[in-house]
Amino acid sequence: MSFFQRLLSGVYEKEKQSKEHLQVEVQTIEADQPFNPYTELHLLQNHTDIIRILLQIDNKRCVTAADDNKAIIWNIVLGYHLAVLSGHTHPITSIVLLPPRRNNSVQLLTGSSDKQIRRWDVETGECLQVISTHGTSVRCLTLVDIGHNSMFCSGGHELCLWSTDGKLLDRFQVRSTEEADICFIIPITNDRIVTAADKQMVVYSIASADLDGGMEEDENKSISLVKKLPSHREVIRCIINIRDGYFASGSIDGTIILWKTETLLPDRYFNSKTEYQGPDKMYPYSIQCLMTVDERYILAAVGAGFSLFDSVTGNLVLHKKVAHYSKILCLTFACEGMFLVTASEDGAIRLWGRKQVIQEAMQVDTLPERKPGILGTFLNLRNEDTIDLNPEVELDLVGECLAHSGAVQVLMNIEEGFMSGAADGLLIIWKSSQLQMVKRNRLIQGKQQQLEEDILGMHSDSIKRHNCPV
Q1: Is residue 307 one of the residues assigned to a domain?
Q2: Which residue intervals correspond to the WD repeats (predicted)?
C-alpha cells in the first residue's frame, strides 16, 4: 500500500466511525472538485509527534512546534526546513515573536512544560538564552506593550512578567486552585491582561512599582490583581481580542461571552445552551476555536460545525451545524477571503464558499466592487449591501483536502495557499496547482530566454575575436 493510500485509508476509517455518532447528514463533495484550487501538496516531514503550534514569521518563513520537544523554522515558499530549535526536554507549549532588535535581527521565545523559556535567533537557529526561573510548567507566553516598552508574560501555576531580554520583573503567586493553571493570556487596554484557567478568567494590571534602588523605568513594573470575572460553566478553550474595548471567551459548554474592557462585564452571550453536555458528556456544542473577522465578527468552531456572529448587533450571521464528521479544531480564511478553511479531528480539511463568488473571481474584468474586508469577499457583498443574512443560507462545500492521517491541529493562511499541521507529525503546504504551473512555465521561459541571450552573446564574442563582419 502506497504512502497516500495509507493516509487516505486512515481518514476514511475515521469518517466511517464518526458517521455513527451524527444525527445530521454530513455534506459530501463532488468527485472532481472543480472549485478547489489547492491540489498541489508539499509534505514537510521533520517532526515526529503531534504538531500543535504554527506561527508565521514573515512572508517566506514560519515556525512550528510539536510534542517531540523541538521547534522548526521553515521556508514556506520552497518548502524546506531552515533550522531545528532543539534543547527543550518536554513539549513546547507556546511561541511568540519578539519585536525586531536594533540590528534588525529577529528573535523568538519558546515556552515548555520543562519549566524553561528559551530565546532563539531566527536567522541562525542558535539558542541565545535559557530562562529557568519560571519555576513551573510554562503553559503560555504573550507579548504586552506597556507604554513604549515591550515585555512578555508567562503563565502556568504562576504569572510572571519579563523584559524582552529575559529579566524577571515580577512574579504573581496565584493561590486559588481554580486560577492556578493559566492556559491563555491576552493583553487588553489600559496596561491590563486577562488570563484564563479552567473555567475562570482574571484581570491583572501592570503598573510601575514603588521601589527604590535606581531601577530603569521599564524594569520598575509589578503585577496586581484587578478583578475575577464571572466564570464559564465549563473549561475555557479560547480567548481573543475583537476590537478596541472588547474581547471574547469560548468554553466547551458552547457559550461565547463578549466582554467590555472598560467595565469588565459581559456585553453579550452567544450560543448559550441549556443542555450543553449532550449524550455521554461529549459536549457537542464545544467552542474549539475563535477567530475575529474584520474587527467586528466572531467566527467560532462550534462542535462539528461553525457559526459567525456579529459582535455589534448580536445577530447570528452564518451557521453550519455539521460541517465535518468530528469536531472542528481550527479554521482560517484563504485566498483573501474567497474560501473558509475548516479542519477537524477526522483528519479532513474542507473549503467553504460560494460558487458564484469563485466563478466571478475567474472573470477579473467583470468582477464587481465589493465591500472591503474578508467578509465582503466571502459573502459576495457589494458596497451598497448590508450584512443582514439569513443564518440558514447554505454555503457551498467547494473542496476537500485529504492527506493527513490524524487530527488536524493547526491551520495558517499564506500568500500562495494555506498550511496545515496534524497529529501525524506532517506539515503540509497546500498550493494552487494552476498558479504553480504558471510560475514553473515562467521560470522555464525565463531560463530559455536567458539561454538564448547567452548563446547570442557567445556568438557575438566569437565574431569579434575572429574580426568577422556581422
Answers
A1: no
A2: 85-130, 321-352
Structural domain harbouring 459 = 436-470
Reply yes or no on whether the pLDDT at 371 is more than 70.
Answer: no
Grid cell, residue 148, equals 513604549
Work out whether strand 297-302 and strand 287-293 pair parallel, antiparallel, or are unpaired.
antiparallel
Structural domains of the chain, count: 1
Mean pLDDT for 9-14 is 50
Interatomic CA distance for residues 108 and 146, integer angstroms: 19
Tens of pLDDT along 100-159?
877 778 999 999 999 999 999 999 999 999 999 988 999 999 999 987 889 999 999 999
Q: Are 431 and 66 in contact (CB under 8 A)?
A: no
Residue 204 has phi, psi (to 5 degrees) of -125, 155
Distance between first and last Cα of the chain: 63
In this predicted model, what pLDDT tens digit does every residue of 42-94 receive, in sequence order?
Answer: 999 999 999 999 999 999 999 999 999 999 999 999 999 999 999 999 999 99
Query: Is residue 467 a part of any domain in this protein?
Result: yes
Backbone angles phi, psi at 316, to 5 degrees: -85, 115
Which SS3 state, helix, strand or coil, does residue 204 take? strand
Domain membership flag for residue 468: yes
**For residues 46 and 72, is the Cβ–Cβ distance under 8 A?**
yes
Residue 157 inside a domain? The answer is no
Please tell me the distance from the alpha carbon of residue 418 to that of residue 433, in angstroms, as a whole number: 13
* Alpha carbon 210 to its chain's center: 39
SS3 content of the chain, % helix, strand, coil (to 5): 15, 40, 40
